[in-house]
Write a structure and sequence with these properties.
The complex is a heterodimer of chains A (184) and B (254). By secondary structure, chain A is an all-alpha fold. Chain A has helices spanning 5-16, 20-40, 46-60, 68-92, 102-128, 132-142, 148-155, 159-183. Chain A contains 8 helices and no strands. In chain A, helix 7 packs across helix 8. Residues 96-118 of chain A have low confidence and may be disordered. In chain B, 35% of the residues lie in helices and 5% in strands. Chain B has 7 helices and 6 strands; from the N terminus they run H-H-H-H-H-H-H-E-E-E-E-E-E. In chain B, helix 5 (83-108) crosses helix 6. Classes of the chains: A mainly alpha (184), B mainly alpha (254). The interface between A and B is large, with 60 and 50 residues.
Chain lengths: 184, 254
């Protein structure tokens, strides 16, 4: 949390009272991790879906009751629900292959993505070895910075189930890293 | 994602060695493993992954707020009706629709109370639909008593053909009629009206007193003396039904 708890509490109270400036402060604080959570889950239009999530948050501000931590958990619950919707619609949506010339693609790969995406590719490769449930738990724990109880609420699972998923995710990652180290 | 708490087994993720290690960790230890910001936390491969995941949000920053969201936040876009409000509104509209339809059907069947019937007729008239008014009902009821013809007295003195007990002779007739025969002098509950000139079609929807084969259709209570032989006092309810034309000869009495 980059801002102080009191500052965020003030922003939350102002946003609930309808202050546009206060909501923009809330947006600045929560939109980056929401976008990151969606991005690591493979969402194509991260910016668009993040805006939809925050629009839902804005519409529901009047009904929300609780402190900043509860609010953060609530926002990620909304984000997770929208992610599920996106996964469903993506399964129904035909895959559109963008026609990019081979020359252009090679230039892009070489000049634009090489350095920038190296870290992302590595992280994405590690996340890819996890099951969907394990990835959801890990990202909500790390990116959303939610405690176990709130991850369980967001995923509609028991705390024990979330703990088990977390252990399995860590074990899977650790074993995968060990195998990679042996191969090198 | 399944919403149940059951953990789907992964194909390779149940590594006994690592699962045993991680299951042996306490919750704070796992938290420390995932949160490399904690002082003294071990920065292993898992910690490095967690750090990379966290750094992503800071690196990309907040996406630009869309124009739609900005308009929503600044209030320049009308707020949407909450879901509950929309449901109530839809329910109210549905109820109104069903009620209006029921009101219209009842009005068409002329079974509403007089004030409501008149209101329904007025509303329907606006949209070009004709519904009967309560005044039409009065005329119709009166006309259905019918005028008695020559009745045969029964043993009890009542005449089966007497007005009020007969069946639809000379009742309200919605079809053109011609008159013949001597006119009845007592309409027997029917409203005297223009029966038409002899041999000419009478005005529609007027009773044709006198002899004739009535085509009257409608309902009504006819009370009153008939003109049958003998003095009959017809009592009862007359339901004149039938279609056709009645014919009579002779002058008509307006």
């Amino acid at each position: 949390m980059s801002a102080s708890a009191s500052e965020l509490a003030v922003a939350l109270a102002g946003a609930r009272d309808g202050s546009a400036a206060a909501f923009e402060r809330v947006y600045e604080e929560l939109a980056p991790p929401v976008a990151s959570y969606l991005r690591w889950n493979g969402v194509a239009d991260v910016d668009g879906l993040t805006n939809e999530v925050m629009a839902n948050v804005h519409r529901g501000m009047g009904r929300f009751k609780g402190d900043w931590d509860a609010f953060r958990s609530w926002v990620f619950t909304i984000a997770h629900h929208r992610l599920i919707d996106e996964r469903r619609s993506a399964r129904r949506r035909p895959v559109v292959v963008e026609e990019v010339s081979e020359a252009h693609a090679s230039v892009r790969d070489a000049e634009e993505d090489a350095l920038r995406a190296l870290g992302d590719e590595r992280v994405a490769a590690l996340l890819a070895v996890l099951s969907t449930d394990q990835r959801d738990v890990l990202l909500l724990r790390v990116v959303a910075d939610l405690p176990l109880e709130e991850v369980a609420d967001a995923l509609h699972k028991s705390i024990g189930a979330v703990k088990s998923l977390q252990h399995r995710a860590l074990a899977t990652l650790r074993r995968h890293l060990a195998v990679e180290a042996m191969e090198q | 994602m399944s919403s149940s708490g059951r953990i789907p087994p992964g194909p390779e993720d149940d590594d006994d060695e690592w699962m045993t290690k991680f299951r042996s960790l306490t919750d704070p230890e796992v938290d420390a493993l995932l949160d490399v910001r904690s002082p003294g936390a071990p920065v292993g491969a898992i910690g490095a992954l967690a750090a990379a995941l966290r750094a992503d949000a800071a690196r990309h920053g907040a996406p630009a707020m869309s124009a739609e969201l900005r308009a929503q936040v600044t209030g320049s876009r009308p707020a949407r009706v909450p879901v509950r409000g929309r449901r109530v509104l839809a329910g109210a509209l549905g109820g109104l629709l069903v009620g209006g339809a029921a009101f219209g059907v009842a009005g068409a069947q002329d079974v509403l109370p007089a004030p409501l019937q008149d209101a329904a007729a007025s509303v329907a008239q606006v949209v070009g639909i004709h519904l009967p008014r309560s005044s039409d009902r009065d005329v119709r009821d009166q006309g259905q008593g019918g005028a008695g013809g020559e009745g045969k007295p029964n043993d009890d003195g009542t005449d089966p053909e007497a007005p009020g007990s007969g069946r639809g002779t000379g009742g309200a007739d919605s079809t053109p009629t011609t008159t013949h025969g001597p006119p009845a002098t007592t309409p027997g509950g029917a409203v005297p009206a223009d029966p038409g000139t002899p041999g000419q079609p009478a005005t529609p929807a007027t009773p044709a007193p006198g002899q004739g084969n009535g085509d009257g259709r409608g309902r009504g209570d006819g009370h009153g003396p008939g003109l049958g032989k003998g003095q009959d006092e017809g009592k009862g309810q007359d339901e004149g039904k039938g279609q056709g034309t009645s014919q009579s000869q002779g002058p008509a009495i307006p």
